[in-house]
Amino acid sequence: MQLLCLSNGHGEDAIAVRICQELQLHKTAPELVALPLVGEGYAYSQLGIPIIGPVQTMPSGGFIYMEGQQLLRDVRGGLLQLTLAQFKAVRRWSKQGGVVLAVGDIVPLLFAWLSGADYAFVGTAKSEYYLRDEAGRLPNRPALEGWSGSVYHPWERWLMSQRRCKAVFPRDTLTAETLQQWSIPAFDLGNPMMDGIELDNSAPIFYQPDAEIKELQRSLVVTLLPGSRPPEAEENWKVIIRAVAELLDSFSERSLLFLGAIAPALSFDQLRRVLEAYGWHQQAKVASNTEVEDPEAIAFTQKNATLVLTKNAYNDCLIKADLAIAMAGTATEQFVGLGKPAIAIPGKGPQFTPAFAEAQTRLLGPSLVLVQEPAAVAATVHSLLRDPDRLHLIAENGRRRLGKPGAAKRIADCLIKGFGKEHR
Q1: 12 vs 35: CA distance, rounded Å
Q2: In whole angstroms, how far apart are CA 13 and each of 5, 60, 103, 291, 384?
Q3: Torsion angle of the four alpha carbons 132, 137, 141, 144, in this order, in degrees rounded to the nearest 10
Q4: With contact defined as beta carbons under 8 Å apart, do 234 and 366 qualify?
Q5: On the chain, which terminus has fewer CB atoms closer than 10 Å, C or N?
Q6: Exposure class string for 224-235: b at 16+ Cβ within 10 A, else e
Q7: Tens of pLDDT along 367-418?
Q8: What pLDDT is attached to residue 421?
Q9: Contact 34, 4 (CB under 8 A)
Q10: Cβ(57)–Cβ(40) under 8 Å?
Q11: In this predicted structure, what is the pLDDT of residue 202?
């Protein structure tokens, strides 16, 4: 069997690659190829998966849906010519008799349908949680939002209900159950975004009899998530460090540890300059108690706090922290999926705009607290730490909305079972 992965974004590429890795482990592993519709698909190349058509990084970085100006820049940068060339490449490939796995939103889904081949769809962009939760419709939403009964529009559901669409993998249970109402082959198998990031199962510290004493004796660990794309992430970093400065003043009696989860594309030099402007001093080496395993990490200290920048210990940053200050997309969702609270501050974009941040709070519910200014973060942290019932609710909510690890394997098994008999 031959399988073509179509995806449209950095996060979508990563999810597709996780599924591909599981497919490669099967005794009847398909022959894999890919076509990233946004960006250059480095994730596929690192796995040795051939790319079958033209790829190009657009000026927007893939955020053309955020505002019309970004779309116009991409059109001027050759978006229409690229899309046409990619469509032709997909049609040529599909004549060999393979199947298509579309990962992302309606764009790869439409490509999959237009290919003429059998296809499956991993829906990463939409969730019913944008409109409703288990209790019903969210308050104060526009009357026409979700007018057709789902976050997915009728034309998207039509593409998912076609005979050639063999499986749909929504991002959460609520969305899967909603799509099943239209006889769509929707499987509730979890979200590959959470694969490879697991916590231990120890009881939260606030359930222990001497919880308050133990809590004050240890460092409060806060992960900092500025996003992955320059220059936006560097601007977000300035906002986050302003919030950190407020925390230093507010928690003067307690040890603090900040873990900066920094994407490879970002420059330590730029981030260092911001830290130094706020009074942080770089250390000769990273102390052993900083919770991260990365020989290339760099550490800074100020007052009662340590701040670590790392590009190679992303999972440590998520797993070790008590909470996060977040101005990111996928990273924020993964953090919340571990059952932890995140505090978001709107930025200037192009990704993490006020509109994006507001939508993300609907997607993640009580696990994500949106504040309008960095100065409000400290009070929010105090409020969270004083409310163990709220923390327990956040833990349950995050795990329910993002699901259990292992989704990529479950999806791969389903694809092999669904496509295997017809495409040997």
Answers
A1: 12
A2: 9, 17, 8, 29, 34
A3: 100
A4: no
A5: C
A6: bbbbbbeebbbb
A7: 999 999 999 999 999 999 999 999 999 999 999 999 999 999 999 999 999 8
A8: 63
A9: yes
A10: yes
A11: 40
Select the more confidently predicted residue: 140 or 22.
22
The closest of 303, 297, 271, 270 to 284, measured between CA atoms, is 297
pLDDT classification of 63: cutoffs 50, 70, 90 = low
368 close to 138: Cβ distance less than 8 angstroms: no
Give the whole-angstrom CA distance, residue 112 versus residue 223: 38
323: closest CA among 197, 192, 223, 400?
A: 223
Report yes or no: 101 and 396 within 8 Å, Cβ to Cβ.
no
What is the C-alpha to C-alpha distance for residues 336 and 355, in angstroms, rounded to an integer? 19
As given in the structure block, the two tokens for residue 110 are 């439409």
